Amino acid sequence: MSGQKDREQRREERVAAEAQAASGDRRTRLLQLSAGGVFLAIIVVVVVIIVASSGGSSGGDASDVAHVQEVEKMLSGIPQENLVLGKSSAPTTLIMYGDLQCPICKEYIEEILPEMIATKVKDGKLKLIYRDFIIISEESIPAGEGALAAGAQGRGWTYIELFYRNQGEERSGYVTEEFIESIGKAAGVPNFKKFNEERTSGKYTKEVEKTTEQANKFGFEGTPSFAVEGPNSKGLELLGTPETQSELEEAVEKAE
């Protein structure tokens, strides 16, 4: 009888041990599944952060023109006439030859020129002139015509700034009628009907071709290219594409 009790006790202990082991295995599997879920969640978060940091968009979205208030604030109070930004009496002139599809031009517009605009242009010491230099594709021609049509209504530089800041990938086909219209509207062109009529009439095609030819004659090989003229320059001095902001600023200061 005593032996039977011993066997039953051992059986009960074995069952309890197996149950405990099974429970441990379940906890281990749950922990593994939980860790896997956390790992997947981390991956999702990282992907979301990467997409967000890259803007989540390649630009060129006609339905979502960004940086409008930023540009308006930067250019507020500065005269605009055609594609000239600044007072006509400013003693020094900086000319930018650019292609509106050019990503390097975009960098200059966003990172280098704002400092000059906030100081020298606002102070009436410098005026900026934009000229089309078509080197990327024919899509840049109607974009440039749009800038000239906006400039005829005193919103040329606003258009240029917004076009660059909403620029899509070059040669991707984003420069559509819809996109140009959306930039014109965001730029606050007063007479939008006139803007559309003039930019599509061929009125400004020769001007785009003329400034492109001029840049080629100067020997410019890429965009943006710059030229400066001021009281202390030897006429119009060709700068090409300065590699740094300080290089461009020094050239302007020497010409002043």
Task: Describe, in plain words, how this protein is organized in 3D.
- There is one protein chain.
- The chain is of the alpha+beta class.
- It has two domains: 1-56; 68-255, Glutaredoxin (3-Layer(aba) Sandwich).
- It has nine helices and six strands, in the order H-H-E-E-E-H-E-H-H-H-H-H-E-E-H.
- It has a six-stranded mixed β-sheet with strand order 1-2-4-3-5-6.
- A hairpin with a 2-residue loop joins strand 1 (80-81) and strand 2.
- Helix 2 runs antiparallel to helix 5 and helix 4 crosses helix 7 (192-200).
- The radius of gyration is 32 Å and the shape is globular.
- The termini are far apart.
- The model is unreliable at 1-8, 25-31 and 37-57 (pLDDT under 50).
CATH architecture of the largest domain: 3-Layer(aba) Sandwich
CATH superfamily of the largest domain: Glutaredoxin
Tally of helical segments: 9
- Provide the spatial order of strands within the biggest beta sheet: 1-2-4-3-5-6
Find the count of extended strands (DSSP E, 2+ residues): 6
> What is the total domain count?
2
Main pleated sheet: 6 strands, mixed
Distance between the termini: 115 Å
CATH class descriptor of the largest domain: Alpha Beta
What is the global morphology? Answer: globular
H/E element order: HHEEEHEHHHHHEEH
In short:
This protein is α+β, with helices and mostly antiparallel strands.
SSE layout and pairing:
Elements: H1 2-53, H2 68-75, E1 80-81, E2 84-85, E3 92-98, H3 103-121, E4 126-132, H4 140-151, H5 156-165, H6 177-186, H7 192-200, H8 205-217, E5 225-229, E6 237-240, H9 245-255
Parallel strand pairs: 3-4
Antiparallel strand pairs: 1-2, 2-4, 3-5, 5-6
Helix pairs in contact: 2-5, 4-5, 4-7, 4-8
